[in-house]
Design goal:
- This protein is mainly β and 156 residues long.
- The chain has strands at residues 11-18, 21-26, 29-35, 41-47, 49-55, 59-64, 69-73, 79-83, 95-96, 100-104, 109-114, 120-125, 136-138, 141-145, 151-155.
- The chain has a single domain (11-155), classed as 7 Propeller (Methylamine Dehydrogenase, Chain H), CATH 2.130.10.10.
- A hairpin with a 2-residue loop joins strand 13 (136-138) and strand 14.
- The radius of gyration is 15 Å and the shape is globular.
Length: 156
């Protein structure tokens, strides 16, 4: 049937843009980046994501369904690092700041990972419910909304 949704290719989260590239994650399927002008696939890789992808000047960041956070090289999709110590925490879309990547979980914690290595650098309790929505950058701060409706600003 034409136009019928395919659960294997449903895009999750907002597409992420950087220069001429647009990157997106498909629910429990794959992550890919495309040339925004031509539509040509730059790279794609199998990765079971449950949230969206974010990008910065060098990397694409995504969390998989098991709770591992990846930094992928934007030029080819290869793993730069993988942080797998957040298993089954139902992670939000990761968001890169100047030196750290922030990702929220189902208990309302926001974890900060070092951008180049994926090592933990900090953890902050929002005091609210689960962090489901992607964190938003506001200057040098990070806005996080929790499932109970709280909005929390954190320093990046």
């Amino acid at each position: 049937m034409v136009g019928a949704p395919n659960p294997q290719s449903d895009v999750i989260g907002a597409p992420a843009f950087q220069a001429r590239e647009v990157c997106a994650a498909a629910y429990r399927s794959r992550v890919a980046c495309y040339d925004a002008v031509t539509g040509r696939t730059l790279w794609a890789r199998e990765l079971g994501a449950l949230s969206g992808v974010s990008v910065d000047a060098r990397y694409a960041f995504v969390a998989d369904e098991r709770g591992a956070v990846y930094a992928l090289d934007r030029s080819n999709g290869q793993s730069v690092w993988k942080q797998d110590k957040l298993s089954y925490r139902q992670l939000s879309t990761p968001l890169a700041g100047s030196g750290a990547v922030a990702v929220g979980d189902f208990e309302g914690y926001v974890f900060f990972l070092e951008r180049e290595t994926g090592h933990f650098v900090a953890r902050s309790d929002t005091g609210g419910g689960a962090v489901r929505a992607a964190p938003l950058r506001m200057g040098e701060a990070l806005l996080v909304q929790t499932a109970d409706g709280s909005v929390v600003a954190l320093a990046l």
